[in-house]
Write a structure and sequence with these properties.
Two copies of one chain form a homodimer. In chain A, a hairpin with a 4-residue loop joins strand 7 and strand 8. The longest helix of chain A has 20 residues. Chain A starts with a strand and ends in an 8-residue tail after the last helix. Chain A has about 425 residues and is an alpha/beta fold. Chain A has 16 helices and 17 strands. In chain A, the strands form four sheets. A six-stranded mixed beta sheet of chain A has the order 2-1-3-8-7-6, with helices on both faces. The first copy, chain A, has a five-stranded mixed beta sheet with strand order 14-13-15-16-17, with helices on both faces. The first copy, chain A, has a four-stranded antiparallel beta sheet with strand order 10-11-9-12, covered by helices on one side. Chain A has three domains: about 180 residues, 3-Layer(aba) Sandwich (Molybdenum Cofactor Biosythetic Enzyme, Chain A); about 80 residues, Alpha-Beta Plaits, CATH 3.30.70.2860; about 150 residues, Alpha-Beta Complex (Maf protein). In chain A, helix 5 packs antiparallel against helix 6. The interface between A and B is large, with 120 and 120 residues. Strand 14 of chain A pairs antiparallel with strand 14 of chain B, so a sheet runs across the interface.
Chain lengths: ~425, ~425
């Protein structure tokens, strides 16, 4: 049976929703990779008694490892180390070498902030050098060190800023206490299928068929989730176990959803489009998404190899002036129309000397809708100099942010289909 | 003493980090507005025993109200209603009127999906019409109804998709069971201060001074958090109590951080810039942020009133071709330089016939850095036709995504300063 872990996220700013937690999800992935089963994530404010209650809950649930994030800062409301020390029954001791290391880091940092008093800042950070007796100190990436506190459960204490937590993770994993706590873990096989253009109910029905028809289906732990218009099917199983069952499941899904299934290896549409764009030059022409598509295409390092640029043509003057869309065309068909989308795409091809262009024009709302073109109506056109074009008009659900974000996903799938030479398929 | 609540977020896709939870933060804000104290948020997978353990934990912590999100879908791994019914000791009963309502909703939805079998989908959704005896049904916004289950604690069961959960919240709050569970709650006063360009340690030091100098400081519940380069100081207190202490705190922060304090009413820099742009026309010229700035400026409905558009000039050809930046200038100073940023801003003013422009060019990494211009080096220029320009070169911390995102925040603050006529101030 594999090691189980819990994550305790601290911080009133997280609990009260002023910042949303990015550490729980990231840590979940790391634990999964290590074959450690994540049982619970809990989020607490800066009240010591609430945090202790959560640590006790984790211990009662019998987890082998607890990872905490946050509450290591210099302010008085940062008290994770203190609470964990009490929970583990270990006194706090000052680590002088660590205090010196923090001071050195601060001296460097302070250069970025003028009119700041080094001693004041250093004093504020002194408490960060107090560690539970017998704990392993993890070197800070920012100014806050982490600790690994041996015990049952072993507690790994990491800072809240994702960049710091992520940078300190490897060292935490390598500590003897972490390794002992998670000994005897089993590595799971996990595979991810992705489908686009399918209602989650459709997948539910297919899984019911699979349950009836596939031997050893019960060895598969399947979760489905609908995200950004894509259905994600993740299957976990123990190595060796249920390989045949999984193969049959993939076969069944292929046969029932040939057009919707776009990834059998968990690769995102973004990964696939990036690969398809190698050696090409793409330009964007965006109205309602106003730069989100260009930003999404450039999320990856190296995207400068194939992204030429784009125009955010928010107003009609910009559509005409920068993309050469005829005012008469806009007048006749409206700014949200396949005709204008196509003209925007052609304009982008031409202005950027690109061989591939994607144009998006739509009504993100809340205003601007009409009976013929309600809020959520979006026209897309993907054009190439060598593979023709593909256009779609789609009605997207949700509010302004949903429509804008979902539009980039639809555009990604249109790009994928056209560049793969699959012009058909539902979208 | 005020009512306390807990939130149980369900779903293996959330626990395992494949989607990050947006409901916990949103619900936290709603509870705060209602004066209900949020004690714990817990996240569980689709294992019934883990969800039950969390519900018991909430009960043991004595919360009056538990809100669950997720696990109401049609797939077999969606079992929240079943688990909550067992926890509350209420049998599940089929609500036929509800089943009919769901069927009607589905019939409408199915129009969006061709080659789909209505009966199969309806069957998949039938389980969504099973509700705990005596529970109040909340009408679905999507296809999944919610329930409010009276008891100690009272459990509010809502669907996972944020749009659905948010659309059903008001009805849940209005139920007698919700109102009884949260009776006798106290409304808190809460105020938010925002500062930019200050290390969190600087605020820690200021708060230590406040603790020494301000009478009744202990009546203030203060949390600080560093987000997107801004320090947020949130102060809660009971009405009447500690008003004077809070006024002194604001005075102290004003006097110690006159340049960094930019919001005393919690308004975001985005809100302030939107107001300052009224009656103006802004255009963007982006390289490393590749559309994120334009997208951020257009997040608000009505932004088409002042946003003309923008150019994503990712390659140098685009900088020259679309923004008229001289190749010689790029050659001489490099694409990431104040000179090129200024030329990009002027090009944007001219091409869009705008009176305000913001240009961003930088090295987001991971590659492209040098000794003189390391990764994170970003040049900004904000230009107007009537108030001059403001330029900055800044070294931003973090990875590619951090640098891109943080750059939009710096640009927002430069815009704010210039449009308010404060050209000075650290950034």
């Amino acid at each position: 049976m594999s090691a189980r872990a819990g994550i305790v996220v601290t911080g009133t700013e997280v609990l009260t929703g002023r910042i949303s937690d990015r550490n729980g999800p990231w840590l979940s992935d790391r634990l999964l990779e290590l074959g450690i089963e994540l049982a619970h994530i809990t989020i607490t404010g800066d009240r010591p008694e609430d945090m202790e209650a959560q640590l006790r809950f984790m211990a009662e649930q019998g987890v082998d490892l607890v990872i905490t994030s946050g509450g290591l800062g210099p302010t008085a409301d940062d008290m994770t180390v203190e609470v964990v020390a009490r929970f583990a029954g270990r006194p706090l001791v000052l680590d002088e070498a660590l205090e010196q290391r923090i001071a050195d880091i601060l001296r460097g940092l302070m250069q970025r902030f003028r009119h700041w008093d080094f001693d004041a800042v250093r004093a504020a950070n002194r408490k960060q050098a107090l560690v539970p007796e017998g704990a392993h100190v993890i070197n800070p990436v920012g100014t806050a060190p982490g600790v690994v506190v041996p015990g049952k459960p072993t507690v790994v204490v990491l800072p809240g800023p994702p960049r710091e937590l992520q940078g300190m993770w490897e060292e935490a994993v390598s500590t003897p206490a972490f390794q002992e706590a998670t000994a005897g873990r089993t590595d799971y096989e996990q595979d991810t299928l992705l489908l686009f253009g399918l209602p989650e109910s459709g997948m539910a029905e297919t899984l019911r068929v699979a349950e009836r028809e596939i031997d050893g289906f019960d060895r598969l732990e399947i979760t489905t989730c609908l995200r950004r218009g894509e259905v994600e099917v993740v299957t976990r199983r123990e190595p060796g176990e249920g390989e045949a069952a999984y193969a049959s499941l993939v076969e069944l899904i292929r046969s029932r959803h040939p057009r919707e299934l776009f990834s059998e290896d968990g690769s995102r549409v973004d990964d696939q489009v990036a690969a398809l764009l190698a050696g090409r030059r793409i330009a964007t022409a965006e109205s309602c998404t106003a730069g989100l598509m260009a930003a999404r295409l450039t999320e990856r390092p190296g995207s400068s190899g194939y992204v030429a640029g784009g125009v955010v043509a928010y107003g009609n003057e910009a559509k005409s002036g920068l993309l050469g869309v005829g005012p008469a065309l806009i007048e006749r068909h409206g700014a949200v129309s396949p005709e204008v989308a196509e003209a925007m795409a052609l304009g982008a091809l031409e202005r950027f000397g690109a061989d591939t262009a994607v144009a998006i024009t739509g009504i993100a709302g809340p205003g601007g809708g009409s009976k013929e073109k309600p809020v959520g109506t979006v026209s897309f056109c993907v054009s190439t100099t060598d593979r023709g074009s593909l256009a779609r008009d789609i009605l997207l659900p949700g509010g302004r942010a949903d429509v804008r974000e979902r539009s980039t996903t639809v555009a990604m799938h249109l790009l994928r289909r056209l560049l793969r030479g699959e012009e058909e398929g539902i979208l």
